[in-house]
Amino acid sequence: MKIPFSVLDLAPISEGESIARALDNSKQLAIQAEQCGYRRVWLAEHHGMKGVASSATAVVLTHIANATTHIRVGSGGIMLPNHAPLVIAEQFGTLATLFPQRIDLGLGRAPGTDMATAKALRRNLNNDVDNYPDDILTLQHYLGTPEQRQSIVAVPGANTHVPLWLLGSSLYSAQLAARLGLPYSFASHFAPDALFDAIHVYRSMFSASAQCEKPYTMVGVMAVVADTEEQAKYLFTSVQQQFIAMRRGGNQPFAKPVDDINAICSPTDKAMLDNILRYAVVGTKETVAQKLAQFIETTEADELIVSTPIHDIKARLKSIKLLSEIDLMANKDSYTVE
């Protein structure tokens, strides 16, 4: 059995580096992912975060798609309640026109920021979130074939049929993806608690649609692969620091790794990290292969989307390459990157 791997990139603004460098790093990562055979590369919408450069997601996707030739490029995701569906249809219709058969549109309903910034984005928080299911259908309508005398038409957008994905970390998102017959991506790389319940709900409730005849599940993991266990654990301390800072209300660039995470990590912090990052795979190719094989076997995922939270771009690119080289064995099944 073979399972495709994809890449989730947050365009991290590393400590000591510029936003311009972060965006160039994302371009390099996408080129590397394409060369290594990954299926798609996605970027996520976040706002007001000093460690993330992908707030204008559609613009960054143009940058990424223009630097590559065939890898699929998309959002993981666009936070739809932040936007009018017509605007997103026009943006992604433009992308699909510039880069035919390569664009994915992953959607979420979280603000992707703090509530003050969310208010600046949305104007009306409660109403926008409540309209999320209808907004998805409206967006899908704009991207489809226009009806006769349709009063509002997305130009570009109409007739592009950009494939939609629903993203989430809860049973709500699983139920909605199942009801709408859309592929589903679960954010177990940072919100693992409902992973297995959500997958079960999605698969058991799924209704076929024009886009999807059967359920299709993508599952997120963090992966840090290096030549030695010690080097991988060292590189992984950057994302551990990020979660500690977020828990304490901090907003900072993506931190440089540290020699001893325990020196800056309280017992409460450690318990939080162990829970949130429980599915992270960190180590050599051999170690990561064993962990990923078990994860794939237990989730029965159709696809994995991998984030590589590494401060140094050279180490990040190497991790992506090493991950693409491993064969994942689970019982009698063989999993390889394609």
TrEMBL record:
GO molecular function: oxidoreductase activity, acting on paired donors, with incorporation or reduction of molecular oxygen
Parts of the chain that traverse the membrane: none
Stretches assigned to the Luciferase-like domain: 5-298
GO cellular component terms given for this protein: cytosol
Protein keywords: Oxidoreductase
Database matches in SUPFAM superfamilies: Bacterial luciferase-like
Cited PANTHER family: LUCIFERASE-LIKE MONOOXYGENASE (PTHR30137:SF6)
UniProt record similarity statement: To bacterial alkanal monooxygenase alpha and beta chains.
Protein's UniProt name: Luciferase-like monooxygenase
